[in-house]
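Suppose a colleague, Dr. K., hands you the sequence of a protein chain of 220 amino acids and asks what its three-dimensional shape might be. Before reaching for any lab equipment, you can write down a predicted structure in token form. Begin with the sequence itself:
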Amino acid sequence: MASYGVDDPEFAVTQLAQTTMRSEVGKISLDTVFKEREQLNVNIVEAINKAAEPWGIKCMRYEIRDMHMPEKIQEAMQMQVEAERKKRAAILESEGLRESAINKAEGLKKAAILASEAREAEQINIARGEAEALRINAEAKAQAIERIATALNQKGGEGAASLSVAQQYVEAFQHLAKETNTVILPAGLSEPSSMVAQALTLYESIGKRQAKQISDIKSD
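The predicted structure, expressed as tokens, is then:
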């Protein structure tokens, strides 16, 4: 007792080890008891050496070789493990559903964007086509007017233009007669000969008017 400060140092160390082990086990969760066995051994050695130092005793090594839990504690541990597994499974499932929803939403968003861009491109192409058609039509009309103007300035151009107008006048009535059963004629035209005479009169009238316009332009 004078050397160790305790009557039975072996018994005292044993009791201290058991008490320390219970204390250390109580600090961790049940599902980590078996995984933390090595750390438990280290913590128990440190606690024993700290308490047994006044006794002149030093613990070199401590090892938990096996653990036997009461049946109720084992059941509780098993329930805890199952609950943890279900929790993790639920988390994984929810994360999977969330990722699936995000992917689906992103897919719909991209599809909507692509559809919108396709409609926009189609409208642009249609507009460009219509604009190009208008441009070509306008250029064709401008070229036709330019040719007509050039022809009118040439010798005999006025007469040719007047004759063309009179010819179109007659063809218009012929076309109307083919399309319907009733032919509408201007006042005073009761027979085809009168129509031809009217066309020739129109031809002469247009020719005189054009000649006068050219004469006025030259006099200016």
